[in-house]
Write a structure and sequence with these properties.
This protein is an alpha/beta fold. The protein has two domains: about 160 residues, TPP-binding domain (Rossmann fold), CATH 3.40.50.1220; about 100 residues, SIR2/SIRT2 'Small Domain' (2-Layer Sandwich). The protein contains eleven helices and nine strands. The strands form two sheets. The protein has a six-stranded parallel β-sheet, sandwiched between helices. Strand 2, helix 5 and strand 3 form a beta-alpha-beta unit. Helix 3 crosses helix 7. The site of zinc ion has 8 residues, from loops. It is found in: Cytoplasm. It comes from Cellulomonas alba. Belongs to the sirtuin family. Class II subfamily.
Length: about 280
Amino acid sequence: MTIPLTAPTLPDAVAVLAGRRLAVLTGAGVSTDSGIPDYRGPDSPPRNPMTFQQFTGDEAFRRHYWARNHVGWRHVGRAQPNAGHRALARLEERGIVTGLITQNVDLLHEAAGSRNVIDLHGRYDRVVCLTCGTVEARTHLASRLDALNPGFADEVEDVEIAPDADAVIERTQHFVVADCQVCGGMLKPDIVYFGETVPRPRVDAAYALVDEGDALLVAGSSLQVQSGLRFVRHAAAADKPIVIVNRGGTRGDRLATLHVDAGTSETLSALADDLPDV
Ligand SMILES: [Zn+2]
C-alpha cells in the first residue's frame, strides 16, 4: 500500500477501500450535520465532560444533570439522520459495510437504516437502574419527571437556549429527580460516561466486527479516547488498511493508511457512489 505524498483525497480513499468489506467506527463528527454538537471538533470550545463519579457522588450535581437532561434529550430525539448516515446504510445494504461501531448515543445510524450497529457508548433513549439493572424507556421517565416537575421543561427550554449557566442552575436547584420504579435505586441514562468502562461483551462484539472486515473505515472521530482508538490499534496490529475521514487530525493518524481531512456527510456520500461492489 503506497501512502500518497500529498494530502489524501477521496480517490485515494476509494483506491484503498475498493473490493474490501468494511468495518466502520463512527464518532460525533458524523452527527454534527444533524444538529448534534461535536464538543471535540476543531472549532468547538473545550469542555469538561461529566464523570460517572460526579454523577453518582454528588446529589446537587445529579439534580442539575437530570434537570438539563430532561430538557436536552428531546433535542436528540428530534434529530434526523444526514447524508453520511444514509451513505453508510446504503453501503451496508450493498454488502460493502459489514457493520458499524458508533461512539454516538443518538441512534441516527439505526434511524438511517443501518442494521448491524454496536452502540458502544450506549443510547440516549433508555435509562438504567444502577442498583437492580432495570431498564426504563426515556420517554416513560420523561412523563414521570413531568409529573414531578410540572411545567419545568417548557420553562427551562428558553433558558437553555441562552448560554447563561447561572440562570440554568438557579432554575434547576428545586428539580425533583425520579428513582427506579422497581427498587428505588439511582437511575442513570444508559450512556457510558467518562470514568466508566464499556461493558466487556459489547467491546468483544466490536473487536469481532473489526476482525470480520477487510479494512477499517473511521468517520467523524478524532479518536481522543481509548474507547475508540483501541479498535484502530487492533486493525493496525492485524495489518488491515485503515482510512480515517475526519475534519482535523486524529490520534489514530499515525496508525492509518490515510486520513482524509474532510466532512463526513459529503465524503461518505461520495464513497457510497464510487466504491464498487465486493
Ligand atoms: Zn432498581
